[in-house]
Amino acid sequence: MRHRHHVFVTGATGYLGGALLGALAARGHTVRALVRPGSERRLPSGVPYVLGDALDPASYASGVAPADTLVHLVGVPHPSPAKALEFERVDRASGLAAIAAARAAGVRHLVYVSVAQPAPVMRAYVAVRAAVEAAIRDAHAAGDLDATILRPWYVLGPGHRWPHLLRPVYAVLRRIPSTRDGATRLGLVTRAEMVAALVRAVEAPALGVRVVDVPGIRGVKGNAA
């Protein structure tokens, strides 16, 4: 029988959040969402929520318990090189806040959506996500947090379909030995694959810090770190 988890989700009204809430609830898990005041109407009907600021752990840490898992999905929408300052202000700050809130609430397992790395582009975005990963590892080293880190590159779905045009290019690059690894690491995944990978992460908590790259997100076994 599958163990039922109590999951606290930040970024619950975003691109992945709504679909994840529904998927978790459908599998019998208890979910609760962090939302800004006024955004609660964007949640699926009946989802319990906590009002707070994802950049300020003190504003919501007391509402995380009794969750055993915190899934952090907050980030700047439609990342681009022009948004480097926003990545610092939102992605880094909210990631560090989620770590602090999880530790304060006694949550053992953090699920964090990072980004594929190394990468030849989007350096500011990758650097911020890598910095949050480093903070997660520090928290684990302190002995009070395990984590699953998912590393997609681009997530296809509604409003995010143009990279389908690159599929023939990816197919060619995967056939060339010198570009095969990069094309695999920076491959495309669908929103459905991401949601399924997030559910798997919740249902099989990491012991330590586990990294799941693009092949793992697609359903192939990820690599441990």
From TrEMBL:
Q: Which Pfam families match?
A: Epimerase
Q: Which UniProt keywords apply?
A: Plasmid
Q: Name one GO molecular function term.
A: aldehyde dehydrogenase (NAD+) activity
Stretches assigned to the NAD-dependent epimerase/dehydratase domain = 7-208
Tree of life domain: Bacteria
According to the UniProt record, one GO cellular component term is: cytoplasm
Looking up PANTHER family in the UniProt record yields:
NAD(P)-BINDING DOMAIN-CONTAINING PROTEIN-RELATED, PROTEIN YEEZ
This chain's protein is named NAD-dependent epimerase/dehydratase
Q: Which organism is it from?
A: Gemmatirosa kalamazoonensis
